[in-house]
Specification:
The chain is mainly α. 93% of the residues lie in helices and 0% in strands. It has one domain.
């Protein structure tokens, strides 16, 4: 055996003789400390895993929110197009209504004029026409 190894062995033996009675006397406290350290390290690893899971969930939620925002924007754009189309159709219907109303008014005026001419020319014929058309007698 070399002198260095023998010196190391002697130092370790002397240290072991001093440490062994301390460990035997305080083994419960040392075990609690070792288990506490192990528990602390395990909790730290679990906390890191929990943080990673939370970050992943947050990223996923942000992506979902962005997708919902895009869908909402598309729906709003489509709704605006539909409202514009609806408004154009309403405007077209209003124009048609006005045109038809004016045409009916002209036709009404023409018929009134025609009836007035017929009345002045043939009052009996108009009275007979009223009787046939509406079912009541003309009374002077």
């Amino acid at each position: 055996m070399t002198p260095q190894i023998a010196a190391i062995r002697a130092v370790l033996s002397a240290t072991w003789q001093k440490v062994l009675p301390f460990v035997l006397k305080n083994w419960k406290i040392l075990l609690i400390l070792a288990l506490s350290a192990a528990l602390f390290l395990k909790m730290r690893g679990d906390y890191k895993a929990l943080e990673d899971a939370m970050e992943t969930a947050r990223s996923s939620y942000e992506a979902q929110i962005e997708g919902i925002r895009r869908i909402h924007k598309d729906e709003m754009d489509m709704q605006m197009r539909l409202v514009e189309e609806y408004q154009a159709e309403i405007d077209e219907l209003r124009e048609d209504y006005e045109h038809n109303r004016e045409e009916l008014e002209r036709e009404r005026s023409r018929k009134i004029g025609e009836i007035e001419r017929e009345w002045s020319d043939h009052p009996e014929g108009v009275a007979e026409q009223i009787k046939m058309e509406f079912g009541f007698d003309y009374v002077e």
